[in-house]
Amino acid sequence: MGQTQCYKILSSHLVSGELRQGESISIRIDQTLTQDATGTMAYLEFESLGLDRVKNELAVSYVDHNTVQVGFENADDHEYLRTVADRKGVIYSRAGNGICHQVHLERFALPGKTLLGSDSHTPTAGGIGSFAAGAGGLDVALAMAGIPFSIIAPRVVEIRLHGKLRPFISAKDVILHVLSRFGVKGNVNTVFEYTGEGVKTLSVPERATIANMGAECGVTTSLFPSDENTKAFLDAQGRGEGFVPLTADPDAVYDDLFEIDLSSLEPLAACPHSPGNIRKVSELSGMAVNQVLIGSCTNSSYMDLKRAAAILKGHHAAPSVSLGVAPGSREVLMMITEDGTLETLIKAGARILESACGFCIGNHQSPGTDSVSLRTSNRNFYARSGTASANLYLVSPETAAYSAITGVFSDPRGSEADLSGITMPGKFVIDDSMFIMPSFSGEIKRGPNIGEPPVNTPLPESVKGHAVIKVGEKITTDHIMPAGARLKYRSNIPRYAQFVFESVDPSFPERAAAYRDNGECGFIVAGASYGQGSSREHAAICPMYLGIRAVCAVSIERIHQANLCNFGILPLLFENEEDYASIDQGDELELEDPRNGVMNGSLVLIDRTKGKRIPMKLFASEEQKKMLLDGGRLNEVKA
Ligand code: MIC
Ligand code: SF4
Questions:
Q1: 65 lines ligand 1 (CB under 6 A)
Q2: Which overall architecture, per CATH, does domain 268-413 show?
Q3: Does the Cβ of 297 fall within 6 Å of ligand 2?
Q4: Could you tell me the pTM of the whole model?
Q5: pLDDT in tens, 61-109
Q6: Ranges of each domain in the chain
Q7: Alpha carbon distances (Å) from 222 to 187, 188, 234
Q8: Angle CA(102)–CA(105)–CA(108) in degrees, nearest 5?
Q9: pLDDT for 245-257, tens place per residue?
Q10: Which residue's alpha carbon is at the smallest distance from atom 3 of ligand 1?
């Protein structure tokens, strides 16, 4: 029986376990990437392992998230990251070099390699045929230490593409269409593999856009074949020697099939407040728009900006619209500077933003009260922009650019621009001077904001306390641990923990800490798809710091589940979903014989307030059970 592309890469990297769907396996990680917001903790964790240098093939540390420097904290973090990279053998990508996923695709990602990144959009490199997954910082630290990465051998869904996109319809519309089919929950331990004739019509950056937002469906990664387009991209990046052809066998068997006729797609938009809330742009036409932002790791490539500029050329952003453009990398910025695209954007009234995450993570450009913001990014979670009352719509660069001119939501097919000549360049502008190669020496500098990575205590014999909070479904890591203005406290857990659940219930930290200080274990009660979104392990570390010992949910997303286990918080699922409704915030809860329950994989939650026994199952692999008993992965690996 033929193999899928996914299983080909997994089998060539398999270290332990049986490569059968649903089994727990571990794989060798070739490349790692970190970004500054998750990276400080990842390198502190790496340091605590006591190794002289990283052990994997290639480790890159990017600075792209916390680049807005208000106060000393972010600059101190950058200096820590630069010096720890220098000492430990990590390539350092300086602030200004661009967004990690865009830059990694340009300069390092390779077909057939495995890549683990402390950022949920690491699968962007699936566009070049790399098995690229997001993980918490600790898992990436361990991969840098040469320790294999554990995953569940995934089910593989074939997404077969036919035909060719029509003008003004682009890769973003493809992935929004995929999101309309698969949604943002229920796709745990799944890989999307793109096949079919239609794949050949898409360049690597377009494929990367599609792979990037597979993260919104919650899949482990997305994969495109490595073919002549991959070779053309690598050649244009001066990296042709890294090319290897890679596709699924013709008789590969998939777990599911979804077919898309590219030529039938229409411009789409993800409506507030979820990337899975998809509607046709034509249905939204005419809605007044206040802000248009083009950029982020999804749509900030050279061709994205060329197409947007072609639509904007000779026009100006409508008076009511604030238009911002953030080129994804310094390479993109240099290319658009050289060919005059930048001038077109400036003439159209665009505010040129730093090549960084910026607006996407709510670091700046927060929209006005109740305003409508069109963005080419990948997440429109409630309050992520920094303005809770704003309505964010995720669209293609074409829809964004055209709507910026008209001032209302507009189908880009109304534009008279000619996009036909915009193709991938034969050669990109290559300048690697913003990478600092490690010297394996020097002093590691730590500013006053940088603390120690906190560790949990082993699982106690008695786990009892209160339901500190009860939340609904689709609680994202942005709900749990806000970013934006709070992002600069990432290296200071006691300070950052003061903002847990800020947009949901700002009194949570005080309540949780009071229970903790009373010697109790805290419980979080949640609906389906708890912890969707980012890889930030702070969504586990900070609740842990506040005394949370268990999350009782209808379902939990993959990366967050791993982060909970890594920090000794029990991920528990209701055996009977309807029991979720019976627990109220403030209920007195206790786990019966928790240590044995963890070993058996099933536990009883006693709700003393309701006088009820609730069967729960532990959502953890054998390996994770052990780390839960030990109080987290750091305790285990250091023991
Ligand atoms: C995001 O897009 O939510 C982030 C910010 O890039 C996160 C990482 C983080 O929280 O630092 C992610 O996607 O993992
Ligand atoms: Fe940065 Fe946004 Fe991409 Fe996250 S999704 S890596 S914040 S650009």
A1: yes
A2: 2-Layer Sandwich (3.30)
A3: yes
A4: 0.97
A5: 999 999 999 999 999 999 999 999 999 999 999 999 999 999 999 999 9
A6: 268-413, 463-631
A7: 12, 13, 19
A8: 125
A9: 999 999 999 999 9
A10: 534
